[in-house]
Amino acid sequence: MFADPTIPGAGLSAASISSLFIVWSACSFVFEIPTGVLADRVPRRMLLVAGPLCSGAGFALWTWWPSFGAFAAGFVLWAAGTALRSGSLQALLYDTLAARGQALQYAGLAGRVRAMGATGVLLGTAAAVPLTAWGGYSAAGAAGVLACIVCSASSAMLPEDAPPRRQAEHDDADPARGGTAAGWRIVVGEALTGLRGDPGLRRVVVLLIALTWVAALDEYLPLLADAMWSGATAPGPAAATGVSMLMVVVAVGDIAGGHAASRTDVTDFRPRRLAPWLLAGAVALAIGAISGHPAGIILVAFAFGVFGWSLVMADTMMQHRIPSGARATITSVVGVGEETVAIAAFGAWAVGSEWLAPTTSFAVAAVPYAVLAVVLMVSSSGATTARASGR
């Protein structure tokens, strides 16, 4: 849409489009932690309602008032909407379950949420082509705005049994004690104390950030699917359909990973339990991608399912350790880490694509997961030895 010269106000150059992505990434960094702190001071449901409305407003600007300024403002609103939900949703779900004495059910609920999100992306992608063919960008944009409104309305119906309640409420009413600024300092201080005082929490935070590596590369999955399809079939009108079918297989794998998390026993779950699965996922991704054959997409789908399951389990371990008063703040710190990993992944792809085919690039992308699996195995073995010698 941004590059389409038939749209008045659009027809942007590659440099202009890149500058829009820079605005998007920069705003994501700037908004992430402040909105996390905000979610630890006000009812999180309120932010979950506001977030999709911000994103929808951005999509509306793109659809009905296209221009470079409107596109930039839309990315700012989209980044704000995403940041308002990042950390807030996990904090609301976990604290509400904890208030009901059901904290161990968090992994199951988070897994189902991930599966439903992947299903929504799959259905939205499938509907985009016929919708655009029928009503152009206006129809697709209107559908996006409507989806945001539905998401906001659905968020308003979420229960919130444990909204943030803090000493900061009293500080806000007493200017002599620092007012609102004191309340923000309390939240940030509790987050820093939690991270400094719990080495296990720090390790899980780093693990969760590291696990987002391949998730950042899902933007390039169409390139992989196209390379696999074109490498085994003759070019023709059916190529686009074939690539779409391969993408659906990967999406099904991601959905299966979310459902697997919902059925995993989280009692005394430890990072070492991820190691064999991460190694299996890395091997599957490398073999499936380097095969260059459409059948290899099954292994790629398995890998994405494993990595999605691992993300939910790592998030669950983190949520169990986070102090409730800083839950959204620390989760937003993870969000900043994920943005950093995404930028590193995009940069690595840009550099590697000069020499490597998409199939080889995805095989190389599996290496960090294999290394992470080995690190988890070694650290687990070292901890076991230390405990044994201590006895």
Automatic annotation (TrEMBL):
Pfam families noted in UniProt: MFS_1
Segments traversing the membrane: 12-34, 46-65, 71-94, 115-133, 139-158, 204-223, 274-291, 297-314, 326-349, 355-378
Keyword line: Membrane, Transmembrane, Transmembrane helix
Organism (species): Gordonia hankookensis
Superkingdom of origin organism: Bacteria
InterPro entries given in the database record: MFS, MFS_DHA3_Transporter, MFS_trans_sf
Keyword Ligase: no
Protein name per the record: MFS transporter
